[in-house]
Amino acid sequence: MKYYEHTLIARQDISPSQIKQLQDKYTKIIEGNDGNILKFESWGLMHLSYLIKKNRKGNYLHFKIEGSGKTIKELEKTEKIDKNLLRFLTVKVKKLDLETDYFKKSEDNQKR
Predict the structure, then answer these.
(1) CA 42/CA 33 separation, integer angstroms
(2) Topology (CATH level 3) of domain 2-95
(3) Against a cut of 0.90, is the pTM above it?
């Protein structure tokens, strides 16, 4: 099995329940194609560098996946026709970092 990091950018105007539905939908696709989600992170609503389909912000979802090329192919095939997604990106990695939460606010930043 190979390791992948997969990031989705969903439209800014979808509700938290729709974000949860997206997470569940893509989790089922990954697990249905012999994949395994090792970690899921919701990075929240962030500014985009440029307009994408008339959106200035996007909801970021990040999956750390163990699976095969077939798993990723099926996942991306479904994402291409999903109207709630602006962009997606899959990167194959040799080793996953499951410890670090890059977009989690640290306690030092919250006190300021």
Answers:
(1) 22
(2) Alpha-Beta Plaits (3.30.70)
(3) no
60 pLDDT tier (thresholds 50, 70, 90): very high
- For the chain, the first-to-last Cα distance in angstroms comes to 43
Pick from 85, 42, 80: nearest CA to 61? 42
Cα 31–66–17 angle (5° rounding)?
Answer: 50
Q: Are 35 and 92 in contact (CB under 8 A)?
A: no
Amino acid at site 77? K
DSSP structure class, residue 100: -
Please, which pLDDT band fits residue 106 given cuts at 50, 70 and 90?
Answer: low
Q: How far apart are CA 13 and CA 45, in angstroms?
A: 10
